[in-house]
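Translate structure to sequence.
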């Protein structure tokens, strides 16, 4: 740093009182450039796959009326009772930072009367969600989801096509070691019958279950199936399965889904205990787990929610959706190490002597206008130092402009990978770099 710069900074510091540094909120984190490059690659792949299946993006607000989640997610779920960031706004309206986005997408679909257009709507979204959970590896209070929803069809082909799309997406981002777990939770009619049977069975065995399960047996018996306590597992395994209680219509739907998955070459494991945490699911539910994250950590999950639109005051509208936990997906993508998130700097423009600056600045501007990333030194430095700066920035090429180059009207372009150097006219440099960057370096 130059002396005037040091003096200037010291004066700035003296004008301020010493204060403690401010840290990010617990359970939240900053994603720094070393990570965001890979995040962007994953998001790009998601967009590409969604668009290939004719999905379009929807962006809904992060803030929603609290009642939206109380009605959709369920007023007695952990999410709504314990985990939401809810506050009273200045005009006394209760607002919530969205804990998930399906309810928001359905709200927007109803609010804008998209159902009036008829047909099927395929929508996708990406963004932060908020839940005040206990922070742990791969789980944050501000976490990110990539999600997609199909609204307007009861057809089992929708379920199968959607799952095929998710498998393609995981393959595209290099995650191969995963399992698709599949179940049906039936419709309100057959599920009610099942819950009765489950309650009866629990009456006989609940004394042997953990305290949580004993409470759930009374309040929400389906939740018992989610219990992770080791000692409970043999007992839970013997409880009645929902798949044995499906009504003929739900059974037919499930058979069509599994039949089509086979036709499409999508492998799945039927998992009768998979009932998912949210109240609005009907019929097909699914999760994809990856051994990379440990069996209990789902990468993504979702299912059919044919009653949700009506719960939110709209006309009957069937739906099917997924939410992908991006924070956990990134751990799996990093492990798979197939995608590279590196955004390499294309060119470092090095100039020697004040008289070289106008040409260097012009050249840097030309490159940038043509979408070639370029860094321009801010001060004249010696050639050797310039090349070491280019190295440090991991620039692919260094463009060198010194007295000799000014006199000859040609610049030196050095390939930082191979060390080869060529003379190129300034007007041709952008084209020259574009050609070189198009081909992989040897
Ligand atoms: Zn049913
Ligand atoms: Zn238990």
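Result:
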């Amino acid at each position: 740093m130059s002396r005037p710069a040091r003096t200037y900074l010291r004066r700035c510091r003296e004008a301020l009182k010493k204060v403690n540094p401010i840290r990010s909120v617990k359970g939240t984190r900053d994603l720094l450039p070393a990570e965001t490059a890979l995040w962007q690659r994953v998001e790009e792949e998601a967009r590409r796959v969604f668009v290939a299946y004719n999905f379009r993006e929807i962006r809904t607000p992060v803030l929603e009326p609290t009642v939206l989640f109380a009605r959709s997610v369920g007023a007695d779920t952990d999410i709504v009772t314990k985990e939401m960031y809810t506050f009273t706004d200045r005009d006394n309206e209760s607002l919530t930072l969205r804990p998930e986005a399906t309810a928001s997408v359905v709200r927007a679909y109803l609010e804008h009367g998209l159902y009036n257009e008829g047909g099927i709507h395929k929508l996708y979204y990406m963004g932060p969600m908020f839940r005040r959970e206990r922070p742990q590896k791969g789980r944050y209070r501000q976490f990110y989801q990539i999600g997609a929803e199909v609204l307007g069809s009861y057809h089992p082909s929708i379920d199968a096509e959607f799952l095929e799309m998710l498998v393609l997406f995981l393959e595209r981002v290099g995650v191969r070691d995963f399992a698709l777990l599949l179940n049906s939770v039936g419709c309100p009619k057959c599920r009610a019958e099942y819950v009765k049977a489950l309650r009866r069975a629990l009456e006989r065995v609940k004394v042997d279950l953990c305290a949580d399960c004993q409470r759930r047996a009374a309040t929400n018996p389906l939740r018992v199936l989610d219990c992770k306590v080791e000692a409970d597992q043999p007992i839970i395994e013997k409880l009645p399965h929902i798949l044995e209680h499906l009504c003929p219509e739900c059974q037919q739907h499930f058979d069509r889904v599994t039949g089509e998955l086979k036709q499409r070459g999508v492998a799945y494991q039927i998992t009768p205990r998979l009932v998912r945490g949210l109240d609005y699911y009907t019929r097909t539910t699914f999760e994809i787990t990856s051994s990379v994250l440990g069996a209990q950590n789902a990468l993504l999950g979702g299912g059919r929610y044919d009653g949700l639109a009506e719960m939110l005051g709209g006309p009957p509208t069937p739906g099917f959706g997924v939410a992908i936990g991006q924070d956990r997906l990134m751990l799996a993508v990093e492990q798979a190490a197939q995608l590279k998130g590196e955004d390499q700097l294309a060119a470092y423009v090095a100039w020697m002597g004040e008289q070289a600056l106008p040409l260097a600045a012009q050249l840097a501007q030309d490159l940038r206008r043509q979408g070639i990333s370029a860094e321009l030194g801010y001060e004249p430095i010696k050639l050797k130092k310039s090349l070491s700066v280019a190295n440090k920035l991991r620039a692919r090429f260094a463009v060198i402009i010194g007295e000799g180059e000014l006199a000859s009207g040609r610049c030196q372009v050095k390939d930082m990978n191979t060390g080869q150097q060529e003379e190129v006219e300034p007007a041709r440099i952008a084209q020259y770099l574009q050609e070189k960057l198009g081909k992989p370096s040897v």
